[in-house]
Amino acid sequence: MLWLLVSCSAQMDTVYYSKKGEVCAPGEAAHFTCTTRQGDHFLVTNYYLTGVKKAEYTCSSLHPKVEEGVCTFWYKDGKLECQGMLSNNMRTGIWTWYNKRGKISSQLRYKADGDYETLLPLRDRPDTLFDSRYILKLAPLSLIDPYSGPSLRMGLEFKLKGNIAGYVECGGYFPQVSSNYAVAANNGLINKVELKYYTNKEGMCGGDYFSIELFNKYQSYTANDSFLTTKPVYAKSYQVYKDVTCLTFKYGYTKQWRKHFVFDSFVGLGIRHHTSSNTLTTYENDHIESIGDYGLNVSENRAGSYWFPNIDFGVKVGYRFK
Question: Of 59, 179, 267, 283, which sits with the fewest C-beta atoms within 10 Å of its C-beta?
Answer without folding.
Answer: 283
